[in-house]
Amino acid sequence: MASLSGQVALVTGASTGIGRHLVEGLAARGMAVAGVARTEDRLRTAMAEVAEATGARTLAVAADVTGRASVEAAVAEVVAELGQVDLLVNNAGLIDEFEVPVWEADADQWWEVVSSHIRGAQLTIRALVPWMVLRNRGRVVNIASGMSTRANPDYSAYSVAKTGLLRLTESLATALEGSDVRAFDVAPGVVDTPMTRSMHMWQGFTDWTPPERVVELVAAIAAGELDQWSGRFLRAGADDLEDLRAVPPEGAARQLRLRPHGDTDPLG
Ligand SMILES: NC(=O)c1ccc[n+]([C@@H]2O[C@H](COP(=O)([O-])OP(=O)(O)OC[C@H]3O[C@@H](n4cnc5c(N)ncnc54)[C@H](OP(=O)(O)O)[C@@H]3O)[C@@H](O)[C@H]2O)c1
Fold this sequence. Notes:
By secondary structure, this protein is an alpha/beta fold. The protein has one domain: NAD(P)-binding Rossmann-like Domain (Rossmann fold), CATH 3.40.50.720. The chain has helices spanning 17-28, 40-54, 68-82, 107-135, 156-175, 194-197, 211-222, 241-246, and strands spanning 8-12, 32-37, 58-62, 87-90, 138-143, 181-187, 233-235. The protein starts with 7 loop residues before the first strand and ends in a 22-residue tail after the last helix. The site of NADP nicotinamide-adenine-dinucleotide phosphate has 32 residues, from α1, β2, α4 and α6.
């Protein structure tokens, strides 16, 4: 296990599911880890359990990632307590509650889903990346999805959000070119969590992606081993770490593009 000792991570959506696994895996590799989520009790319990299990320093900061003031206050607390953040993982987010076509979706819940992923990521990036740029050091991971590249009619808000997040990552990575600050999309596969348990499409599913695959990928990013993939989409459980380390991506590989209809497509 590569040591990330001395580094500081901030993981949103840290109280359960993938975020909780990431907190534990990064702490086990020596990082000091701050976790953000809205429900304070559950978050505090999770972060205390990880500190106990790993001996690492953890910090629970209850905050809603869609609130500008709450994100700015949370980041200030993390920096004051743990120091400058080396790794930001934008993992917090919601899924469409009603599993209906877009025209039937509740407008407020629909927008809440989009906001949890997009506004949440933009606000944490806005609060943290300027410091990363000043230090010329940092990694941002946005947690993506299979629905980043394929729409699902029952989860239109989530599909929109996760696709937008891909574009946000690419915009960020492009703006950071020439610096030692990078940004990545990591799709976690299908991990057994409260979110997937709530989704009709995964009922009866058993071939879950081990959360360790997500942790390994994010840890390799934090260690600077996958920098050539900045601005691109990686998938835990499908991508082999050795291959990723060895392969330099070319052109728009693993980026969001229109596929031409053939050689005569003027948009090709
Ligand atoms: N599980 C999978 O197989 C899978 C597949 C593809 C992508 N993903 C993505 O992976 C991420 C984690 O998924 P999961 O399955 O672990 O979800 P989950 O079990 O529902 O956990 C979501 C976490 O985000 C927090 N959260 C939600 N809204 C928030 C907000 N506005 N502000 C702060 N925290 C918030 C939740 O805590 P509070 O409710 O207390 O705030 C919780 O800690 C999500 O981005 C999801 O879209 C998951």
